[in-house]
Write a structure and sequence with these properties.
Blueprint lengths: L4 E11 L10 E5 L5 H10 L6 E4 L7 E10 L2 E8 L1 H7 L3 H10 L6
Parallel strand pairs: 3-5
Antiparallel strand pairs: 1-2, 1-4, 4-5
Helix pairs in contact: 1-3
């Protein structure tokens, strides 16, 4: 199912000084812009099964915010993460680890 990824949208940043998620920059890849490494990581990590909200927005100030939207031939999956860095240090959430490994395969900013 991940071989037919159509688009990936990624929003990431710190929510401080009244900043809202809609104020953060959006990075997007469509079709052939999606690297083979990202496609393979999505398959390997079962990304399309990980929709939902992760982390804890009460753990940091400012809040680290991330939103991932993946569109494939099988549908759309959305993932929202609060304070990924802190949560990765404090816990052992397998789902968060899988998302983290996928995000590491997206091209740098």
């Amino acid at each position: 199912m991940t071989g037919n990824l159509q688009s990936i949208q990624y929003i990431s940043g710190m929510l401080k000084g009244g900043k809202k998620p809609g104020d953060l920059p959006v990075r997007e890849w469509k079709g052939e812009e999606i690297s083979a490494q990202a496609r393979e990581a999505a398959r390997r990590e079962g990304l399309l099964e990980l929709g939902g909200v992760y982390g804890d927005e009460r753990l940091g100030d400012p809040v680290q915010y991330e939103h991932l939207k993946v569109v494939s031939g099988g549908g759309t999956v959305e993932v929202t993460i609060f304070n990924r860095a802190i949560c990765m240090l404090l816990g052992d959430d397998e789902h968060l680890g899988r998302i983290h490994r996928f995000l590491g395969k997206l091209p740098p900013r």
